[in-house]
Amino acid sequence: MSGDCGGFQFHDDLSSVFGQRPGGGGVSNMLDLQNGEPTGAFMSFNEFLHGSAYYSALARAFDMSISPEEALGVSYGGKVTREVEGESNNINGGGGDVYSNVGSGGGVTPVTPVTPNSSVSLSSTEAAGDEDSGRCKKLDQQGEEKVEDKGDENDGEKSKKVNKPRKKGEKRQREPRFAFMTKSEVDHLEDGYRWRKYGQKAVKNSPYPRSYYRCTTQKCTVKKRVERSYQDPTIVITTYEGQHTHQSPATLRGSSHILASASSSALAPSFHQELLLHQVPPLITTNQQVDANPNMFLQSLQSPFQQFQLPDNYGLLQDIIPTFIPNNHP
DNA sequence: CGCCTTTGACCAGCGC
DNA sequence: GCGCTGGTCAAAGGCG
């Protein structure tokens, strides 16, 4: 079990960590917000994820400025560290509060479309790619081999599906991964990209299956996993791996106008988010102290964002941003 | 017809 | 070595 190849070393962590019910102790109030409201939150991480500067900046920030542990620490405390380092200790019971989001505090927008969700939290691991050193080479190979395989699968013999030659010893560079914790009623949040589901697995210790998605754009190897917190079904944990090599349809659609009309309430929520997210990078510096007191952290983050004159309905971002930004400490 | 989801099977890594 | 688990494949079927 611990042997989760991978994908994400912290996937288990995520499950357990994100799975912690709010109220455990500290900061986690995000889940309590908007209770029972089937609000549709349009989760537009696309801008965040597509090959935009933001993604790169963020990845870089996590990768170079902070260790995975620290990144994770943004949301929860120390126990996690070990997992990130390769141990799959269950941090359950840690009671640590995972949610560090500033509540969306009713930031739910009436105009928000159908995707339910509200609060979001981000975590990042192993952008550093170290972790993979020990495992999951499989993933590396697949990207490339997969292609070959399809061609090779000749023989109609395919008695068994997966009998492709896997190169051994090859390591694949771990792609930066980011996990979002979202309160949502739908598993697959709209993020502006097109995804194809390629698998679903039951997750140990969780009644909810984990779904595996792959970006349908050719040559784009981005993947994402979606699973629900087993402790709080209203929480969806979305983990992105890799970096889009293209722009999302949503972005293409309006990116050029964003800056000009960003403040317009006519913009779709996603655009608001995009704008905001793109403005964020400068704030990403280091996140020392992040692991201190989430509350403190969040509080310190709030002011910087206010300068953006966020639209009334930026609800989601409201939650996302604070979590994203490690810290902006002078 | 193309795209997507579902689903059972396979593989690799890890712990015991 | 065995069993467990996560991750992936690919056939089959559904849908627009």
Automatic annotation (TrEMBL):
Residues 161-171 have a biased composition (Basic residues). One of its GO terms (cellular component) is nucleus. Pfam families: WRKY. Residues 85-179 are annotated as: Disordered. This is WRKY domain-containing protein. Residues 92-108 have a biased composition (Gly residues). The keyword Heme does not apply. GO terms for molecular function: DNA-binding transcription factor activity; sequence-specific DNA binding. Its main location: nucleus.
